[in-house]
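F.,

This is the one I mentioned.
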């Protein structure tokens, strides 16, 4: 659901960028450019909020990797047994591909 909203916001952002840059720079168009720029700013902020929500959702659902003593490798804290995954059980499909990295937004990257 959130990913669908993010995809639609990316489309809207692109359309607003096109509108902003295709509008001739005459004095009569300064108000129009200002309105379009304001809408672009709102879309950027909404996009950031949705990306943060997706990141938070992914972090909450992410299994923890623990060492032999049951300590979370990332945090160094004792992990809850229901949220742990042994390193040996990690699937090869969980590795990040180059395509995924190149298509990830800067906001999502900041949280990784």
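My design for it:
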């Amino acid at each position: 659901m959130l990913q669908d909203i993010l995809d639609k916001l990316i489309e809207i952002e692109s359309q607003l960028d096109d509108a902003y840059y295709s509008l001739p720079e005459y004095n009569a168009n300064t108000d129009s450019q200002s309105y379009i720029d304001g809408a672009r700013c709102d879309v950027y902020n909404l996009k950031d909020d949705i990306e943060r929500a997706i990141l938070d959702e992914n972090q909450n659902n992410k299994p923890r990797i623990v060492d032999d003593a049951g300590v979370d490798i990332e945090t160094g804290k004792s992990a809850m047994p229901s949220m742990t995954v042994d390193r040996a059980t990690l699937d090869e499909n969980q590795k990040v591909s180059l395509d995924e990295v190149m298509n990830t937004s800067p906001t999502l990257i900041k949280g990784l």
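DSSP finds four helices and two strands in the chain.

Talk soon.
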